[in-house]
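Entry 14. Structure prediction run on the chain below.
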Amino acid sequence: MSYINFENVGAFLRKCNGTTLRYDQACLEILTKEKISFWSQYEECEGCMLLETANLPATGSVILDTLSPVEYAIRNGNGEICNGTFAFREFGQYSINLTAGDKGPMPTHDDSRARCSIPSNPHRCGHSTLHGYHLVHSERDRKEDCRGETILQGFLQEDDELGSGPRILTQEVASAFTQTRSRLRSLDIFRGLCIALMIFVNAGGGGYGIFSHSVWNGLTVADVVYPWFAFAMGEALVLSLNARLRASLPRSAALCQVCVTLTVAAPGCPAGYMGPGGLHMSKYNVNLQNCTGGIAGYVDRLILGPSHLHKRGSFSAMYATSVPHDPEGLMGILSGVLVVQAGAHATRIMLSYNHARARILRWLFWSIVFGITGGALCDFSKNGGPIPVNKNLWSLSYCLVTAGMAFFLQAVLYFVVDLKTKWGGRPLYYAGEWRG
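Output returned:
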């Protein structure tokens, strides 16, 4: 009865049948005396049918990625031997013994998971963590008055690094602000952070999955780089353009993109489809092979042509797509304008208010508004809601969430760097320093 139990025989090993494991990989050895086939699919591939991963004439090993739980099935000439779902761990060495015991009822999914490196007493760990939280919280309470007074004094300091002119910026006084304005270091550091992350992600991110783009829906560190840079670009536009152009950025482009995406159907695809196509929903006998990106992907292929589009997205291998899709397509630009507009608004707040408290509170306010609105559109989940968070489509929820994160980060950097002068920003400051 234990023939399908997983056993981690040692995560300190880095080899799998002669092959060295890379980051986010695990080794699964299947012990068998007969010819079997191993079928699998990652839970990340939403609604995808199982595919044959390996065909083993006898005992052999299979290398699996660990970024997502794996749905699996093992079959022989007579049919299916066993199936289930399991979350493998990085560099783990696992084995399934098909030769031991009678082939009786298969253990439940929870039983299989519990036999592999799960804490023996999770409830005790939970209580310890909660107890630690109360201790820290009590310590914070004792220091609250002192810290609150210090922060309040910091908020009340008059910030004059942008001059002491009128609060509301008009065309007539714009030149006066430009002449008296000194550099705001947090803006350069924010821009430098975006550039540093961009270089690191493009260089492979050390091989770690968190620095790789999401397969389709979802959000990783790599996914926030581009919108944050667009946010920084919006901040710079307000500082560099003359006053009569500062309010001319379009605000309705994102709404146009949403209306077209939700109401117009690509040929052979359902209206409102925003999925990756390929194997998506193939488990339910739904054919969406040529629907990658929905109407947004169709518009790009129609206007730009397939030869001008990106063909190696992170989703293409997972979903076995057959048509190209560019994550920075034409319709994505429409919603991307919203992020630029958010950055421009952040700088308008900075130019219109001289008090640090007024600036920070407004940045935090818009951070909350953008974050909650974006979360509501995706139902605060990865694949839920009418508009999921999706970098490949620059969906409205994706733009709102990333812009909200940028507002919050700008407020934190301004408080730490410009107001409290606790950090000079090196070396990020040098990467983002801009002379206009």
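The radius of gyration is 27 Å.
Filed with the rest of this week's runs.
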